[in-house]
Amino acid sequence: SSLNTTETATERPRKRRHSKRPIKLPPPPDGFQALLEGFALEVMRQRPADIYKFGATHFEDLLRRRQSGNGPTVNDEARAAAAADEDSAASPAAANKR
Hints:
The chain contains 4 helices and no strands. By secondary structure, it is mostly helical. This is RIIa domain-containing protein. Pfam families: RIIa.
């Protein structure tokens, strides 16, 4: 064991014991999946050099559009995600994977 000359065995940080039980997370809010999918698609399309700056701008734009009444609502986003899922399931590439 490598102790610093100024620390004693009792001063070393203790290792945390991790539970083997899975953590129960609350369900995500309505529209969350669609929101993240939309962001992921824009990242893939635009390939921004600074993903954090891009994300900030992306979400600020969505918020501005929604507040002005021109942006999608949570239900619109959920419907769009469901439609995208249906489209991908109906595509020939998806049919070949089955």
